[in-house]
Amino acid sequence: MRAHRAHSGFTLIELLVAIAIVAVLIGLLLPAAQKVREAANRARCQNHLKQLALATIHFHDTDGAFPPGRVENAGTATVLPKPPPGGYTDGAVLFGSPTWLVRILPHVEQQAAYTNWNLRRTFQEHPSLARDHVVPLFLCPSRRGAQFAIAPTTQIGGITLPCGCGFPGETVTGGATADYGGNIGDLSPGSSGLPTDFQNPGRGTGVIVTCRGRDDSTDWLDKIRVANVSDGVSNTVLIGEMHVSRGRLNATPDNGAAYDGSRFNNSMRAGGIGAPLGAGPDDDVFGMGAFAFGSWHPGVCPFAFADGRVVNIRVSISSATLERLCNRADGLPIEE
Predict the structure, then answer these.
(1) Is the pLDDT of residue 33 over 90?
(2) How would you list the strands of the sheet with 310-314, edge to edge?
(3) Residue 145 lies in a domain
């Protein structure tokens, strides 16, 4: 009689049980792995902000003031530098000056990229080599890499936000985008009493604000210096992560070309009453998301202060306290 050999392989039931155990283990380990990845991304994000803050402070030390967020003619929609003889060929395009991110390029080891810019010409007059240059330091690793940071040229319709601020319908030139914005201040009305005052030349209550141009030079008026930050550089926001809703990365007006000064919110944001801190990528910030600070890091948004330190601020911060942090000279204590 032939003896039966014992099978050394798995039975179907044993195989299914093993697969189930592996699936449970993966389910347990995946959230932990995601938390570790997010912690690493948040640390890198804070490092990016630290380097940007130090670069901006170094700009102040060498140029005598913080960089202008953008440069415009006071009281008009025309940006400096002046249009070329005969005007521009497309009247439907709003032309903007290069933003503060262009001016700090030499201070973030981007001297070669900076040589492609002429600050006396508009963003739109520059070649794509300059407009589309992505700087990884300008990006939050929790959102994207450098290969996903260019906004296309597009046509948008007119938009009016709850504050009365708006975006006209126009052709918008594309370019490299960013995740960090300079602090233009709060939404305090200026001398005209209009809710749009904060974004006009010399009206911003922050540190990196819209300024008036100076003839045909690269100099500017309305300079903000350390002495103008009377609330103290340790109490005033310099740069923060900009709120961008999920699915709106590289989409105008939420996340347009960062070097384009035709819209302040491409590279600057406001904070306070009327522009609270975004609570995450699915928060519309009461319709003001395109103007607000906010991150994709759970529960917090990182900010660099004007003294160079970086702080993770809870998204639950009150709008009144955020406003005091964004206003450089309101004289009010930070209680929260």
Answers:
(1) no
(2) 268-270, 180-185, 237-241, 300-305, 310-314
(3) yes
